[in-house]
Amino acid sequence: MKLKYYVAGIISLIVMPVMAQDTTDTLDKSFDHTIQDAFIGGGFVLGNSANNATVLYGNSREFVVGVGAGYKFAKWNGVGIDIHYKSTDFFLKQDSNKILPNNTLHNSEKVSFDNIGALVFDRFYIGSFFLDGGFYFDWTFYTKHITWDNTKGAGATGSSIKTTDRQLNFANPTNYGLTFRLGKITGVSLYFNYRLSSLFKAGALPAQAQSGSVSASVNGSTYPELPVYVLGIVFATH
Description:
Elements: H1 3-20, H2 24-28, E1 34-46, E2 61-74, E3 77-91, E4 108-126, E5 129-150, E6 160-166, E7 174-184, E8 186-195, H3 207-210, E9 229-237
């Protein structure tokens, strides 16, 4: 079994008991300094795409699961830290402009990033609701490029071929950004991520750039940046 499944499974096993705890007594206390976080959910990629790396919105999505703890300075405010596993898939539009990670066209194609990260947040409580904002830092421990192609003609032994390139050498090993969350203390909440860092290494050149068929971009890399926003929903206890 792949490492990413072990990581997601272990964090999920930690999350479920925390989410199952009855928080009624805690909410009825005059004041409790403890913050406990547990969440599982996902979202969709948003934001502008480059013409040569257009993503398919709706298909491009994210899964996230995590746990955390913190301290309330007052009934209405506290700080904490979450540890999470996050997997984000960017499905790429297949057209003649595409250069990420090359200009070969397929029936379907995606670039995927699996991360273990931490989020430091400042939380405000408004009755049974909360609003918080924070800074996250992710270690990208597993990356892959996957393509699907239909097979046909003499000698074909199946209907399609799936090809996977793992641990992409042009991907940055870390990324970071801002997170905002809004919702019920126990129940459904929304989250919004804004990635501030680049997914790809500066100066990393795809095969067609190395051969001179395309020129280097202004930022030092021919790999265009992928959308930086994710809007999602989680089931959680905060």
